[in-house]
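Hi P.,

Sorry for the delay on this. The queue was packed all week, but I finally got your sequence through. Input first:
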Amino acid sequence: MKKKESGKVVCANKKAYHEFTIEQVFEAGMALTGPEIKSLRAGKANLRDGYAQIRQNELFLYNVHISPYTFATQTPSDPLRVRKLLLHRREINKLIGKLERQGYTLVPLKIYLNSQGRAKLSLGLAKGKKLYDKRATLKKKEADRDLERALRRR
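Then the structure:
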């Protein structure tokens, strides 16, 4: 479930923390083709509009763009294809129970390569924020920064 990732962060979804309240983070493996992993190692991926869903007791990743590898000899696959995520059955069952509650969704937070060179995805169990929640978060961040500045001056 929660593990410290060590390795290269390929891409991060910074907007997810602004748009959603992240309640829990899961680590999932990804079923990729050879050219896709090479493209990830080159840092060519985008998580901006991505999301994950459970279909037939399996977890799938939608709308994540992994650019085609330029030096691939086989025909390039669709950059936005649906990719299977690899989690233990126990974790998928836990997610099914939590996603049945209204307002929860699975948002990809970052893709990184672990110490063995495998592509991993940090998935956040998230609840959407309202506009006033976003404003309150920004105000709190700004107040914390002002407090830090004031403490540094002393």
